[in-house]
Amino acid sequence: MSAAHPNTPPEKHPIAHSTGGQAIQTIQGLYYVIGGLWVALLISMFQSVTLPHYDLSRMWAVRAVGLLVAGFGAALIASGRKKEGPFIGGSLAMGVALVIAVLDTVCLATGVLPPLVLVDAGVEIGFAGCWAVAILFWFNTAPNRLAAMTTPYTPPANG
After folding, report:
1. What residue segments make up the domains of the chain, in order of their start?
2. Which key words are in the record (predicted)?
3. C-alpha angle with apex 7: 13 to 157, nearest 5 degrees?
4. Cβ proximity of 135 and 91 under 8 Å
5. pLDDT tens readout for residues 15-25
6. Using a CB cutoff of 8 Å and minimum separation of 24, what contacts does 143-152 make?
7. 41-74 residue pLDDT tens
8. Quick one: how far is CA 126 from the chain centroid?
9. What's the pLDDT band for 33 if we cut at 50, 70, 90?
C-alpha cells in the first residue's frame, strides 16, 4: 500500500527514518555524548576552558545537565541506527538543539559563561537548521505526505 493511502498505518517519525535524518541523529548524538560527558566527568577541564573556578561540590547541577545531554545523545545514536525506524523524531531533536542554543545565549548574556559558548550555540543552530531542511525536503518531495499524515487511520474491518 502507498504511504498516501488513508488506510495505511502512519509511519512513526518518517523524517528521522530517512538517510539524511539518520545521519543528523548520529552526528548530533555523538556531539552530545562527547560534550555532555566532558562537562559531567571532566568538570575541572571544562572550567579551565569556559568557567571561572567554583567549588566543584557546588557544580552538581552542571554535571547533571551534562549527563542529561549525554543521555539524550546516546538515545539519538541508538535511534538513528534502528533499522525498523527511529524512536526519536526530528522535531524533538530540533527542539532540544534550540533549547540548548537559547540556554547558551542566556548564560552568555548573564555572564555565567564566556563568549566561547557562542561556538556551541552556533553548532546547535546548525543542527536545528539541518532538521528544518530535512523536514522541508521531506514534505516537498511528496506533497501528499502531509495529507496522509493528517488523515485518520482506519484499520480494516476483521472478517
Report:
1. 14-141
2. Membrane, Transmembrane, Transmembrane helix
3. 130
4. yes
5. 555 677 788 89
6. 144/4, 145/3, 145/4, 145/14, 147/4, 148/3, 148/4, 148/5, 148/6, 148/8, 148/10, 149/10, 151/6, 152/6
7. 887 776 766 656 656 556 788 889 899 999 999 9
8. 11
9. very high
Q: For residue 103, give the amino acid letter.
A: L
Q: How many CB atoms lie within 10 A of CB 43?
A: 18
Q: Can you say whether residue 88 is alpha, beta or left, with left for phi > 0 and alpha for psi between -120 and 50 degrees?
A: beta
Q: Which three cell numbers stand for residue 136?
A: 522541508
> Is the entire prediction scored with pTM above 0.85?
no
- Length of the chain in terms of residues written: 159
Helix (H, G, I), strand (E, B) or coil at 133: helix
Amino acid type, 81: R
Reported confidence tier of residue 105, pLDDT bands at 50, 70, 90: very high
C-alpha cell at 73: 545523545
Locate 16 and state its grid cell. 528521522
* Residue in this structure with the C-alpha cell 518518517, named with its chain if needed: 14
Q: Which amino acid is at 32?
A: Y
